[in-house]
Design brief:
- The protein is an all-alpha fold and about 100 residues long.
- Helices cover about 90% and strands about 0% of the residues.
- The chain contains one helix and no strands.
- The longest helix has about 100 residues.
Amino acid sequence: MDVERTIEFILDMQAKAEVRMAKADERMTRADHRMDKFDKRLEATRKLVEAGMKYIVKTHKQHVEAMKDFDRGMKELKDAQKRTDLKLDRLIDSWARQPTNGHKN
């Protein structure tokens, strides 16, 4: 058995293993970097969605309030129209009951 060749073989295998390990470390570092970028993007997206949901809720509340105001205004307008119609009916009735100075139509 040639001890020198065996030692050389072992050293060669160790060198190749170290190269493979360095490449694996480099890939892991790149993967970690990509994951960090992904995590940052995901966090930014989460914040955008959260802000968007808050905006939607706020806008919805404003819309509901505006609709309530509109409905109140429409009810007031409807009530005022009824009062106007009653007054107009009374006025027309009072004109219809007025004497015609002896003239008939």
